[in-house]
Amino acid sequence: MLGMADLVLALDFGGTKLAAAVAERGATAWRSVERSLLPRGVDAAMAYAEMIRLARGVLSGERPAAIGVSFNGPVDPLAGMVRVSFQVPGWEAVPLAECLTAEFDAPAQIENDANAAALGEARYGAGRGAESVLYLTVSTGVGGGVVLAGQLRRGHHGLAGEIGHLCVEPDGPRCACGRRGCLEALASGPAIARHAREALVAHTERPSRLRALPDAALDARAVAEAAAQGDALAWEVLEGAAIALGRGIGSAANVLDPQRVILGGGVTHAGERYWSVVRSVAQATALAGDTLEIVPAALGDEAPLWGAVAGSGSAGAGARERERGERGA
Fold first, then answer.
1. What secondary structure letter does DSSP report for 2?
2. Residues 116-155: pLDDT tens digits?
3. pLDDT above 70: residue 319
4. CA atoms within a 13 Å half-sphere pointing along the CA-CB vector of 268
5. β-bridge partners, 94
6. Smallest Cα–Cα separation from 293: which of 127, 120, 116?
7. Which of 36, 109, 121, 300 is surrounded by the fewest CB atoms within 10 Å?
8. Distance (Å, rounded) from C-alpha 313 to C-alpha 68?
């Protein structure tokens, strides 16, 4: 049996699913992993109870040395606090790190899922060997994280890497954040679907495979599939999203000068033609030009879990920092 010093418990609190895994320190494969889908109407207490069940299952009675957590929503990593979840009610101002430490008698470190995924890809995935990484996930939103000199950089307000809210089109559509022309409002999955619907209405004379789809089935994947089959209108919509993403990447690269840009999320499975546009526009926008390396993520849905493992190494330091803050040191 392994001693507790060898085990890291990784937890991923998603908006619709949960995952718990155990890895030996320094390993690149899970010793045990379990997942669970969250039913509709679940609240924070129910989600927490289910995660504890998963965690105890993967631990099999052993005690972890540290706990790393990825959470789908804004968090305060230093305080170990969840600020809110936009998908599961009841998470407002929950001291999640403290709760998990009480459950498992081990220090816990929490990160939002985008930062966790960035750290996971940098340490264990497509960013291995690179000193500086900009990670983006393009799916229902556009999020990201920044790893410089091997360390996750959160920024003063914890907002570093929020490339989804770069303004790439000042007179563009309104974003969920309330501003106009954000990258997320132009390049995310819902944005692609919305633009496709608008194009179908605006160009009734143009044929498109998308017209045969029920509204609920018209999503970014459907647009990408139609574009791959030669649908000109679908390609124009997808190309517009790729251009916006390329501009956002190039602009961010001019500030951060990363060695490698890693793209993950469902939208990035839109095909090589999409990738070609993203790369060419990003490289044309960035001062680094065609030396800017843009690669697909390697870890898929497991990136936040591996980021939780990587972040767990700072759990004890984070706890000591919190204690110093409470003492006024």
1. -
2. 999 999 999 999 999 999 999 998 889 899 999 889 998 8
3. no
4. 23
5. 82
6. 127
7. 300
8. 8
